[in-house]
């Protein structure tokens, strides 16, 4: 991996991680913050892929920013904790988040392709 590519991912990741933390502070509802960042990050990554499927922007914004901004591990932990109390709600959370994130990727890509 080239040094420039690694730096692009690092800078994007740093910004994404800080913004993820800020969303958590702003939303202040357990689980909802994770849903928000996962769907928004999926939309953005879809848009990035529509602009430039490969290259520096994809590394910085996609792998770096979106990779740090979105959070699969938090989603998994929150779903397991929810399952301990409300199994049906946990299943809905898991399925709903997956469907929403997939639709967001498609929508982000479609928006960019329609504009470009």
Structure description:
By secondary structure, the protein is mainly α. About 90% of the residues lie in helices and about 0% in strands. It has helices spanning about 5-25, 30-50, 55-70, 70-85, 85-115. The longest helix is centred in the last third of the chain and has 29 residues, at about 85-115. The protein is globular and about 45 Å long. About 30% of the residues are buried. The mean pLDDT is about 95.
Search tags:
mainly alpha; 116 residues; 0% strand; globular; single chain
Which bin fits the share of residues in helices? Answer: over 70%
Mean pLDDT: 93
Strand content: under 5%
Number of strands: 0
How do the helices and strands follow one another from N- to C-terminus? HHHHH
Query: What characteristic shape results from the CA principal axes?
Result: globular
Radius of gyration: 15 Å
Count of discrete alpha- or pi-helical segments spanning 4 or more residues: 5
How far apart are the first and last residues' alpha carbons, in Å? 30 Å
Structural class category: mainly alpha
Q: What's the main sheet like?
A: none
Report the uncertain regions: none
Question: In terms of topology, how is this protein built?
Answer:
Elements: H1 3-27, H2 32-51, H3 56-69, H4 72-85, H5 87-115
Helix pairs in contact: 1-2, 1-3, 2-3, 2-5, 4-5
């Amino acid at each position: 991996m080239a040094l420039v590519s690694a730096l692009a991912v690092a800078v994007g990741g740093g910004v994404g991680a800080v913004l993820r933390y800020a969303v958590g502070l702003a939303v202040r509802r357990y689980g909802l913050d994770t849903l928000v960042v996962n769907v928004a990050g999926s939309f953005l990554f879809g848009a990035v892929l529509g602009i430039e499927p490969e290259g520096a922007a994809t590394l910085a914004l996609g792998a770096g920013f979106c990779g740090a901004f979105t959070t699969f591990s938090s989603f998994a932990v929150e779903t397991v904790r929810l399952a301990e109390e409300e199994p049906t709600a946990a299943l809905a959370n898991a399925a709903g988040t997956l469907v929403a994130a997939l639709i967001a990727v498609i929508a982000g890509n479609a928006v960019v392709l329609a504009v470009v």
